[in-house]
C-alpha cells in the first residue's frame, strides 16, 4: 500500500508560511539544498531541476498533493504544472478543472480521495501543503518529514490546521543539513 508523506519546511514555532501565504523567509542555503537534492529530488519544482543539477528526479514519490493556496503561486506566474515530473492533485472547491493533463483539481473529500489513491498501484504520495489540507488529511498521513528551519515566525499558516487531537509519532531520523536546518523524519 502507498504511503502519504507530509514533507514540508517549517519554522521552529511550527509555521509553514507567513499569514499572506508567502514563504520567501525560508532561505535555501547550499548546505541543506545539497542534502535535499540528494535525498528528496522529486520535491523540487520542475523549473528548478536544471539549476540544481537534477537530471531525472527519481525517488519514492510519483504523486504530489497540494491545496489551492500552495498551487496558486505557480498559477500567478503562468505555470499550470509546477511538478510536471509527478502526477499532481490540487484540492480546491473554488478552482475550475485544469486544462493541464498532469494536474487534476479535486473538489471532494480529501481523506476519502487519498484512501482510494493509497489502494492504487504506484509510488508514495507527497503532501506538500498546506496546513489546512494537512489538517483534513491528519488521519491519512503515514510519515512526517519536517525541514525545521532556524526561524521563529510568531504567526502564519500552521504546519497543521486541526482541532486538538494528540497523536504520538516515532522518530526515524534527525538529520542536520547545515545552515541550522534539521530534517526530522517521523512515522505514525
TrEMBL record:
Signal sequence residues: none
Domain Bacterial bifunctional deaminase-reductase C-terminal: 3-183
Pfam families: RibD_C
Recorded GO MF terms: 5-amino-6-(5-phosphoribosylamino)uracil reductase activity
One example of a Gene Ontology biological process annotation: riboflavin biosynthetic process
InterPro entries the UniProt entry points to: DHFR-like_dom_sf, RibDG_C, Riboflavin_Biosynth_HTPR
Transmembrane segments: none
PANTHER family per record: 2,5-DIAMINO-6-RIBOSYLAMINO-4(3H)-PYRIMIDINONE 5'-PHOSPHATE REDUCTASE, DIHYDROFOLATE REDUCTASE FAMILY PROTEIN (AFU_ORTHOLOGUE AFUA_8G06820)
Protein name as annotated: Deaminase
Organism in which the protein naturally occurs: Micromonospora maris
Amino acid at each position: 500500500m502507498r504511503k502519504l508523506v507530509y514533507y514540508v519546511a517549517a519554522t521552529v514555532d511550527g509555521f509553514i508560511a507567513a499569514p499572506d501565504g508567502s514563504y520567501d523567509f525560508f532561505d535555501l542555503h547550499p548546505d541543506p539544498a545539497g542534502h535535499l537534492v540528494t535525498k528528496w529530488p522529486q520535491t523540487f519544482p520542475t523549473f528548478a531541476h536544471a539549476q540544481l543539477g537534477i537530471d531525472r528526479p527519481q525517488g519514492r514519490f510519483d504523486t504530489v498533493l497540494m491545496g489551492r493556496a500552495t498551487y496558486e503561486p505557480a498559477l500567478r506566474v503562468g505555470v499550470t504544472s509546477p511538478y510536471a515530473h509527478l502526477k499532481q492533485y490540487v484540492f480546491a472547491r473554488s478552482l475550475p478543472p485544469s486544462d493541464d493533463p498532469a494536474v487534476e483539481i479535486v473538489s471532494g473529500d480529501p481523506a476519502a480521495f487519498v484512501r482510494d489513491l493509497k489502494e492504487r498501484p504506484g509510488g508514495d504520495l507527497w503532501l506538500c501543503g498546506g496546513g489546512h489540507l494537512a489538517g483534513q488529511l491528519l488521519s491519512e498521513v503515514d510519515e512526517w518529514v519536517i525541514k525545521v528551519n532556524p526561524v521563529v515566525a510568531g504567526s502564519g499558516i500552521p504546519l497543521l490546521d486541526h482541532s486538538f487531537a494528540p497523536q504520538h509519532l516515532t522518530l526515524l531520523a534527525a538529520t542536520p543539513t547545515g545552515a541550522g536546518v534539521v530534517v526530522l523524519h517521523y512515522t505514525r
